[in-house]
C-alpha cells in the first residue's frame, strides 16, 4: 500500500470459490480491500479477474449453472454484512456496489434517459434534481460537452468510447460506496483514458474501487493496492 498507514477494509472475501457448469474458475480467494482506495486486480487472461468482480455484487446469480462458495462481506450501514444474507436483495446491493463492464452496455433509449434511469428506479421524480445529477455525472466523465445538444438521441448512436463513458456516468450517478470496473479504459483513446484515470483517483475519497486492468503503467498510476490472480487463485496481494 502507498502511504504511511493502511485504511480499514471495506470488503472482505473469505475462501471464495466459483464454478461455471462444474468447471472451477476461482479457488480460495481470501483478501481484504481497503476503503477509499483503488485496488487493481491483475493477472493473465483467463485467471478469473472478471468472474471475481461478479462475486462482489451477486451478478453471477443471473448466469445459469453457476455456483459460489465462501463469503463476501462489505461494510454497509456501519457494519460488515454478508452479501449473501437473505434479507439483502440484489437491487439493494447494486445501488451501493456499482459496476462498469469491459464491453459497454447502454440501454436502448436516449442518452439522457440512460444516465437518469437508476434515479428513476429509485423513485426520484423531481426533474430538476434528475437533470442536475445527470449533467454532473456526464461532466465527470467528460462527456457532457460532446452530448449536451443531443441528449434525446439514442445512446446506441455513440461511439464505443463514448458509450463506455456513458456507462461510467450511469454507475456514478447513484454515488455508490463501491465501484467495480472491468477494463474501464480498454475502448478509450489516450485523452479519454487519462480523464477516466484522473476521475478514479479523485473519486476514491468517497468510494472504494476495484479495477481489472491489463495495463501495468495504468496500475502504477492509479492503484493503492494490487491483487494478482493466476489460475483462479491469489498469487500476490500488496
Describe the structure in your own words.
- The chain has a 6-stranded mixed beta sheet, with helices on both faces.
- The chain has 8 helices and 10 strands.
- The chain has helices at 49-55, 90-96, 111-121, 127-140, 144-147, 160-172, 190-203, 216-222, and strands spanning 9-20, 23-34, 38-42, 66-76, 79-82, 97-100, 178-182, 208-212, 225-230, 233-237.
- The mean pLDDT is 93.
- By secondary structure, the protein is an alpha/beta fold.
- The N and C termini lie close together (6 Å).
- Helix 3 packs parallel to helix 6 (160-172) and helix 4 (127-140) crosses helix 6.
- It has a single domain (9-237), classed as P-loop containing nucleotide triphosphate hydrolases (Rossmann fold, 3-Layer(aba) Sandwich).
- Strand 7, helix 7 (190-203) and strand 8 (208-212) form a beta-alpha-beta unit.
Per-chain topology:
Elements: E1 9-20, E2 23-34, E3 38-42, H1 49-55, E4 66-76, E5 79-82, H2 90-96, E6 97-100, H3 111-121, H4 127-140, H5 144-147, H6 160-172, E7 178-182, H7 190-203, E8 208-212, H8 216-222, E9 225-230, E10 233-237
Parallel strand pairs: 3-8, 3-9, 6-7, 7-8
Antiparallel strand pairs: 1-2, 1-4, 4-5, 9-10
Helix pairs in contact: 3-4, 3-6, 4-6
Amino acid at each position: 500500500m502507498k502511504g504511511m498507514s493502511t485504511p480499514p477494509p471495506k470488503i472482505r472475501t473469505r475462501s471464495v470459490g466459483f464454478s461455471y457448469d462444474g468447471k472451477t474458475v476461482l479457488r480460495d480467494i481470501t483478501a481484504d480491500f481497503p476503503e477509499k482506495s483503488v485496488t487493481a486486480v491483475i493477472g493473465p487472461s483467463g485467471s478469473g479477474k472478471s468472474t471475481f468482480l461478479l462475486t462482489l455484487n451477486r451478478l453471477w446469480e443471473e448466469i445459469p449453472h453457476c455456483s459460489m462458495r465462501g463469503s463476501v462481506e462489505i461494510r454497509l450501514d456501519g457494519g460488515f454484512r454478508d452479501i449473501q444474507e437473505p434479507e439483502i436483495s440484489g437491487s439493494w446491493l447494486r445501488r451501493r456496489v456499482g459496476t462498469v463492464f469491459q464491453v459497454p452496455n447502454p440501454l436502448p433509449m436516449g442518452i439522457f434517459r440512460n444516465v437518469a434511469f437508476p434515479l428513476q428506479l429509485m423513485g426520484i421524480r423531481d426533474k430538476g434534481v434528475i437533470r442536475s445529477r445527470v449533467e454532473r455525472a456526464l461532466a465527470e466523465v467528460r462527456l457532457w460537452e460532446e452530448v449536451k445538444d443531443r441528449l434525446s438521441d439514442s445512446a446506441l448512436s455513440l461511439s464505443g468510447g463514448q458509450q463506455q463513458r456513458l456507462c461510467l456516468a450511469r454507475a456514478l450517478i447513484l454515488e455508490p460506496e463501491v465501484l467495480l470496473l472491468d477494463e474501464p479504459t480498454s475502448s478509450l483513446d489516450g485523452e479519454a483514458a487519462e480523464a477516466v484515470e484522473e476521475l478514479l483517483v479523485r473519486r476514491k475519497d468517497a468510494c472504494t474501487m476495484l479495477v481489472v486492468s491489463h495495463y501495468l503503467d495504468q496500475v502504477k498510476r492509479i492503484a493503492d493496492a494490487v491483487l494478482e490472480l493466476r489460475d483462479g487463485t491469489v498469487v500476490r496481494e500488496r
